[in-house]
Amino acid sequence: MRSVTAETITEAFLGYFGDEVNPRTHQLMERLAHHVHEFAKEVELTHDEWRACIEFLTEVGNITTAERNEFVLLSDVLGLSSLVDMIHSDPHGTSSSVLGPFHISNPPRLPYGGDLKRDNDGELVLVQGRVVGPAGEPISGAELDIWQTATNGMYSSQDDAQDTFNFHGLMTTDESGRYAFTTVKPVPYTVPTDGPVGRILDATGRHPWRPSHLHVIARAQGFRTLVTEIFPDDDPYLDQDTVFGVRSDLVMRYQARAAAEFPDGMVLSGQVETAFEQVDFDLRLVAD
Description:
The protein is of the alpha/beta class.
């Protein structure tokens, strides 16, 4: 099209589409082009700014590895990851929250009452609850993929001193839909700031802190997979999470317990000689 202008370029872009384009692909690309083109016109994007954007995205790609996905981190700090979660969270189930860039697939199996703490330093925490359906019915055989940081605020994939699957485990709920495991109390931490996403935070005067949390992916046949996080109510960053992951129904409370209250049937049973913290949190899934 020889006569394309700033006013007609979006229409020209759409005119180049073939006749057999998937309708959803057509919708996504049409709206993407519309918003990107309108953005460029609204701010009068300069050549230098356009080149800086290209260089930024190239750097994001260059720093991305199997262990660190800078594109996911970029999506997180822009609020896009959480926005997608919010759009697709069902109000009848537990809210979804960000996956984050440090999930590791296929962690080792963890039995009911299993121990994620192992020989790691940190305050002992017992985490327990049920996985239930929309009406509160227990879901037996649900699979929970659980992970968190160590007390240095780093995930195992960030820290050469940790085993690959340190603080990662895969648990199946019992016949009553229950799960339980021991771990250490997570700590607040900063998202990586040594890459291009860190420069975005600096440029906008934002801090890089996330409140402490546990990650969970819950899967069960016939139910929608839930990707979520669980946050303590006393964390100083609860209301200023840099990736916008906190939801009101994902906030739990640590309950102080004496050593004598540690339950039977746990891997650490009989070994607890000090007080510990307890978390009770149910996960509600919705039908697929």
